Amino acid sequence: MRFDHVGILVDDLEAAVAFARDVLQLGEPDEIRADEHGLTAAFFPLGAGRLELLRFEEPGDRLPKGVHVSLDHVAVEVDDLDAEAERLSGHGVRFQGPRLPDEVGSPLEMRGRRHLWTKPETAGGWMLQLTERADA
What we know:
Number of helices: 2
Structural class: mainly beta
Oligomer: single chain
Shape: globular
Distance between the termini: 13 Å
Largest sheet: 9 strands, mixed
Order of helices and strands: EHEEEEHEEEE
Radius of gyration: 15 Å
């Protein structure tokens, strides 16, 4: 596993991006939209990894009422997503998609790469996003 990014869920993406760009001086982000997941995100380079600021159209329980920002996930890149998922499953870890807590049995493709997110209750209480290396 190699560190890729940390994802921060925000209720006001525009304000969060402005702060990172203008106050923290992280430069212009690489912005993405994943309509199939109701997700908009901005990625900023940050040392050896990246900072992802993200917002869902329907945040649900991921951002409870009255909470404006939350550490959402830590993302790592792996060489073989299927092998890593099988290894983690052997330890009782289960997987979900990026927004809903519904369990998924196979990786999801987004932006040309395959991904899985651990269900926090099966993974030490926090969410890990596994991303397969682009040239795997």
